[in-house]
Amino acid sequence: MHTLAAALAFALKTADAFDFKTADAFDIKTADAFTIGAPSGLGAGTTGGDGGEVVYPTSTAELVAYLNDTRPFVVVLNQTFDFRGSEGTTTEIGCRPINNRRCIAKHNGFKGQDVIIQGGDMNSTGGCTSGTEVMVTYDNAGIKRVLVRDNKTIRGIGKNGVMIGKGLSLRNNIIVQNILITDLNPHLVWGGDAIFIPGSNDGTTVGNNIWLDHLKVSRIGRQMVVTGKAGVSSMTISNSDFDGNTEFSSSCDGHHYWTFLFYGKTTGITMLNNYVHETSGRSPKVGGEVGDNVVVHAVNNYWSNNTGHSFDVDVNAHVLAEGNCFVNINRTLKNGTRGEMYAFNGGEDADVCKTYLGRPCGANFLVNSGSLTSRNGHLALEVMKAYPNIIDHTSESTDSNTVEQQQQVYPKSLLNSEAASALIQASDLEKEWVKTTGNFGVGKLD
């Protein structure tokens, strides 16, 4: 019930943050003044650009230069950085997959996605199932991510920190907080990733210490967040709004399919307090490659209005899902037998988490959604035993603002069928959820 309160509180919380209009409003010398709180979960210990110079880029060129630099920086975004057109466009032969041909034939008012061919080979290009040739045009900036070198904090102010038309490629010890990334060739699969974590040394060495917090991501051609095959050992994604509303979708219904893709030889990710909505797949996809070892702790997130599937758990994936809320989800877990996932939904197995983790797990809550069942769940919990940050997680692991919001919005007396009935009105709750007026993501930043 406590978890339900948190989900409801996030859904209904709106608040203003301080709105600093210019750099002159700050008299600040350290990263701590810009980074609100600290990451919990598997990304704990990430410090970003702490101790580095605080800088205010005023052009896309300056922004790229600061992020490419080897020195630690706190890079403050208080304006829009629009990369569209800055690197020209390309028109070439692409792929029209069978799902887009069927979408066109439906005449249902939605548009599908064509595909940028990878490596010159249509047959081996992901998303190009039974493809035929078609001319495609894309903005080059969208497929060329900005390299963010080690020890950086990227911090947006109010709702002014916006990146249009280009994503980020993150190395190690990086914080990205309170920015919007949007409009990366949304009409094309492979049109661009919002955030990519490839690891170090050209993707051969596992990355570490990433915190993505209070972000909004929308209108992306490919993945909103993707980890490379080297993996990232310690990452937390928290308090963020992943908005799948799109004019172009592979599912031909205005819902984005390519949401999260978590690969890696050594990958550990906490998803905490996020709002994932209007998607149709890969929310997230976990594992699937030979040699992967991907651990995901998904806790206290809110999924809504997914027309396909949320979790896609594949080989070498180990997932613990607890305390999450699913509203209007067609399939909470994609059909299959591979991979491992433990999802606690209350009932007779209440002591299972205590046996493996020494603590109870929070129950997931489903409304108008497909069932969420464990798959090789005991094996997943056995893996979780090796992660102190998962063992030590409690409902109080959310930040103090979260707890305060719960108390303000839904007192314990309402945590019953009344609260459940309110949850059914998912569209109204989602409108409130995205109304956080002073900053991006979910919940107030001070």
From TrEMBL:
Protein's name according to its UniProt entry: pectin lyase
GO MF, one example: pectate lyase activity
EC number: 4.2.2.10
InterPro entries linked to this entry: Pec_lyase, Pectin_lyas_fold, Pectin_lyase_fold/virulence, PEL
Keywords: Disulfide bond, Glycoprotein, Lyase, Signal
SMART domains: Amb_all (SM00656)
Signal peptide limits: 1-17
Organism of origin: Hyaloperonospora arabidopsidis (strain Emoy2) (Downy mildew agent)
Protein task: Pectinolytic enzymes consist of four classes of enzymes: pectin lyase, polygalacturonase, pectin methylesterase and rhamnogalacturonase. Among pectinolytic enzymes, pectin lyase is the most important in depolymerization of pectin, since it cleaves internal glycosidic bonds of highly methylated pectins.
Reactions listed under catalytic activity: Eliminative cleavage of (1->4)-alpha-D-galacturonan methyl ester to give oligosaccharides with 4-deoxy-6-O-methyl-alpha-D-galact-4-enuronosyl groups at their non-reducing ends
Keyword Transmembrane recorded: no
Lineage: Eukaryota, Sar, Stramenopiles, Oomycota, Peronosporomycetes
Pfam families the record matches: Pectate_lyase_4
Domain annotation Pectate lyase: ranges: 111-332
Record PANTHER family: PECTATE LYASE 18-RELATED, PECTIN LYASE F-RELATED
